[in-house]
Write a structure and sequence with these properties.
It is a single chain. With 160 residues, the chain is an alpha/beta fold. It has helices at residues 13-24, 43-53, 90-96, 98-104, 148-156; strands spanning 6-10, 32-36, 69-74, 77-83, 106-110, 124-130, 138-143. It has a single domain, classed as 3-Layer(aba) Sandwich (Rossmann fold). The protein is built from five helices and seven strands. It has a seven-stranded mixed sheet with strand order 1-7-6-2-5-4-3, sandwiched between helices. Strand 6 and strand 7 form a beta hairpin. Helix 1 crosses helix 2. The two termini are 26 Å apart. The relative contact order is 0.25.
Length: 160
């Protein structure tokens, strides 16, 4: 069952990072966030902030644009951060092992449209887009079908 989207205005990069930290604190193995939006919308910033918040000792979290996937051992378990911008078919996703990681790790996937049929049905869709009224702000739109995300989003929607 599709639910109405939740839309939050993020007025700064710091608010985007705070939202990522709040969501990250609730993630468990098998959770997947599909990060949508144009280049420069803040997908990597969101993912980086979330991953660093789960580390005992924060370290550099580079964009996986060229490596396609970066994995991290965190306090919440293994986290996979994938950037599928350069992927041309779902078969390439299979080769990366990402489809298997969907059930065993926390997965953050940029450019998820390149997953094709491999996109997890229970994933949280986060679309970041520039605000039409403030060039520094972003709109964060959340879409989901799994009840799993109701509790997660209820805890963050009132205080981005």
């Amino acid at each position: 069952m599709t639910r109405p989207p939740l839309i939050i205005t993020l007025n700064s990069a710091d608010q985007t990072a705070k939202l990522a930290v709040e969501i990250g604190a609730q993630l468990v193995a098998g959770d997947c966030i599909l990060l949508n939006g144009p280049v420069g919308a803040g997908k990597t910033h969101f993912a980086r902030s979330l991953i660093q918040s789960l580390m005992d000792f924060p370290e550099d979290v580079p964009s996986p644009t060229f490596t396609l996937v970066q994995t991290y051992d965190t306090t919440a378990g293994e986290v996979w951060h994938a950037d599928l911008y350069r992927i041309t078919s779902p078969a390439e996703v299979e080769e990366l092992g990402l489809a298997d990681a969907f059930s065993t790790a926390i997965c953050l996937v940029e450019w998820p449209e390149n997953l094709g049929d491999l996109a997890p049905e229970n994933a949280l869709q986060l679309t970041l887009s520039p605000s039409p009224t403030n060039e520094d702000a972003r709109l964060a739109r959340f879409d989901w079908t799994s009840d799993r995300w109701v509790t997660v989003l209820d805890r963050v929607q009132h205080d981005p």
